[in-house]
Amino acid sequence: MTSPKTTRRDFVKQSGLIAGGMLAAPALANAGTFFHTSVNDTIKVAVIGCGGRGTGAAMQALVAKPNVQLVAMADAFRDRVDDCYKALMSDDLSDWSGVKGNVKDKVKVTEETKFVGFDAYKKAIPLADVVILAAPPGFRPAHFEEAVRLGKHVFMEKPLATDPAGVKQILDAALIAKQKKLNVVVGLQRHYQSSYRELYKRLQDGMVGDIVSAQAWWNGDGVWVNPRKPGQTEMEYQMRNWYYFNWLCGDHIVEQHIHNLDVVNWFKGAYPVKAQGMGGREVRKGKDFGEIFDHHYVEFHYADGSIMNSQCRHIKGTMSKVDEFIMGTKGNIYCGQARITDRTGKELFAFDRKKENNPYQAEHDELFDAITKGQYKFEDAENGAKSTLTAIMGRMATYSGQVIEWDKTLNSGISIMPTVYDWNAKPPVLPDANGEYPAAVPGITKFFA
């Protein structure tokens, strides 16, 4: 996926700050068990999913501490492994993650530790102490479950699943990760961003009062399209064009808008109990765009009666906005502006932008710092799973036009994943004779009786 690469690069240029954390520190000898030995010990990392996000995350992990080494790579496609390896071996990484210089001396991957195929993750994970999970979201539950089973610390990208069954699988594995004291960080990076942390702190101190409503936006032009190539099986085509198929991506409300939904959940300290909304395919339709919608509007209801109104859109030429607004009984939080006002508009707090950090780097700095110090600090998986379910509820609400309830959804067991993973196997959704994919129709599509 190319857009995360651009986002990271632009963020670093705007902030002008590179989070470092380049302190020598001891590492763990075995995942899940910590030993302080010497600064020459290494923390071995494997990256699962070698696209743009996996490549950027690997770079950020390698600069988090001097004793971090990349020892294994895994992806369904060989060319993605090769492209990732080439990028990591570059002399200049500034175009990817703002890192000055290079990390190639820390890349210890050999031909024998480059793994390709649907089961490549099972070969790479055992070689590492920490795993980076950045394959398309549909694979996240299986990859996380395997990492936890083998006692590995984890950085994994959002979202954490594309269906309720996958969320349940993540939650079950998260419980085991807690028992094993495995640090798990999820790429909902606003939790690691200085401005958001300062806003949250003042919310907790009572500056805003009780939250009564919220607005969340992810509106933009959309992302890449990878056209079908001659000779591709249907499985390979969908894997290459993964953003447009729900079993792989979850729709853009899940893949991107989760960031904004998660901020509201975080500040609320709660998750919605039900959702209803509307959406469709107004502009982005046709065989190149799979089955997903190009716009969603969802009304999320929390148990205390407060409401979050959420909108996300992928339509060129329309208003672009990625932000959150939170209204309290005493004041309002303007997240994108990093400021708080009272109900009359008088400013109560404004974050000093000169103190902003690079949250994409901070995620890795804090994770690896905890590991080297033998600390168990991060349990992001449960929140990541529940914010993922929030987004999935939103998709189900817009697809069906019905009210979707939290408990019923979580316990539904609904799975949209394939039963067989093979290049010649049939994916869950197939095109018709004209190459068009079936899409949900509100009022007709149903998830519950």
How would you describe this structure in keywords?
single chain; 449 residues; alpha/beta; Rossmann fold; 2 domains; 9-stranded mixed β-sheet; 6-stranded parallel β-sheet; 18% strand; globular; disordered N terminus
Description of the molecule:
Helix content is 32%, strand content 18%. It has 449 residues and is of the alpha/beta class. It has two domains: 3-190 and 359-378, Rossmann fold (3-Layer(aba) Sandwich); 222-294 and 380-449, no CATH class. The protein has helices at residues 3-15, 52-64, 78-88, 94-97, 120-124, 140-149, 164-179, 194-204, 234-240, 252-255, 258-268, 359-372, 380-400, 406-410, and strands spanning 43-48, 68-75, 114-116, 130-133, 153-156, 184-186, 211-220, 274-280, 295-301, 307-314, 321-328, 331-334, 339-342, 347-350, 404-405. The radius of gyration is 21 Å and the shape is globular. Helix 2 (52-64) packs parallel to helix 3, helix 2 packs across helix 12 and helix 6 runs parallel beside helix 7. The model is unreliable at 1-40 (pLDDT under 50). Strands 14-13-12-11-7-10-9-8-15 form a nine-stranded mixed beta sheet. Strands 3-2-1-4-5-6 form a six-stranded parallel beta sheet, with helices on both faces. A hairpin with a 2-residue loop joins strand 11 (321-328) and strand 12 (331-334).
- For the report, how would you describe the main beta sheet? 9 strands, mixed
Low-confidence stretches: 1-40
Q: Which structural class best describes the helix and strand composition?
A: alpha/beta
- Using the alpha-carbon principal axes, give the shape: globular
Mean pLDDT across residues: 91
By DSSP (H or I, 4+ residues per run), the number of helices equals 14
Q: Whole-number radius of gyration?
A: 21 Å
